[in-house]
Amino acid sequence: MLPRRLQQDAMLSLLGSTGSIGESTLALVREVENLTVFALTANTNAAKLLAQCIEFAPHYAVLCDDSEAEWLRAALRESGCKTELLLGVDALDQVASAPEVDMVMAAIVGAAGLSSTLAAAKAGKRLLLANKEALVMTGDLLMSLARENGATLLPIDSEHNAIFQCLPTNVEGVSEAQFTFVEKIVLTASGGPFLRTPLEEFASITPEQACAHPVWSMGSKISVDSATMMNKGLEFIEACFLFGLDHKRVEVIIHPQSIVHSLVHYADGSVLAQMASPDMRVPIAHCLAWPDRIQTSAPRLDLTAQKPLEFAQPDLQRFPCLALGMEAAKARGTAPALLNAANEVAVEAFLHAGLDFLAIAEVNAEVMAQIPCETATSLAIIQTADFKARKLANELIKKRI
Fold it and tell me: Where are the alpha helices (H) located in 57-152, listed in sequence order?
């Protein structure tokens, strides 16, 4: 039986501990004997963060929204938990780059996770990247920071982790040398809850329906992105940056069962695929232990008990957000940041302000069309593009609601 220990004792900062990736990571921390939590962070969920601090006793807890700070500080004190509470986004950078930390799980959803992800890369950490938006927005900048500072970047997204597992092992993490004999990579996509929904019903789709994913259990924003297939558009962009590939060498296929997580096509005609039950503990465990493996309680895959596996080409008319992601990957520069920012605003408006489901793609497309793409040579340029896209997206949404 494989061990439940890492090669050596490790200290983990978990950014976004109250989300779905954070909870899956903590489920593994309970199983791994020599993995200690240094910091846990949350945006607003003070109650869940309190429970996690009491159980795992990290050195630090970070709460970005300080409205519950006094309650949480008092509750920590009353519970006897010695965890020190820090506040605000600067504290995220602090716990991501602290010298005591060996690994950083970057699991904050959206652009809010950008600064702390960059801080971890600058500090040369083993960076377990679950925040796809950080790589989508900064692309080559993040990859350069990781290389220059000796950070090891390991992908948590099930699709990118699958590709990584199908490549030749490289002890430095992702490397261009791994692609010498690769023709292309293929990302699989479940198609979300509306893969077979008649198009005439799309206009009446509700947030509750969009968040009811048929396979994965995820947060609301990621669930909506899966429903529009924007998540696959962002993952397409992410794959181009992460693996250093031209957009022509990346493809997407629909695979509703989510058993084959991605494939790598080699020059000799071989195709390697990584398969597992759809459980995020599998890629997380792979990155925690890499280049070794550890025993986990994740469900085992039994292909004889599975329904037939299906594969199909994506319908870009049904899922225009996927097409927008592919276009942004081709354009590069600030295009991915513009698309990501517009989508975050549009999804938030769909979830909480009454924006129609179909309007998510329309807002994204209008922002991409109206704001020129620039060369993304600095973080300041990327942040300016992000600001412009959010401002325009909000203006466009106000006209629709």
Answer: 69-79, 89-97, 114-122, 132-138, 140-148
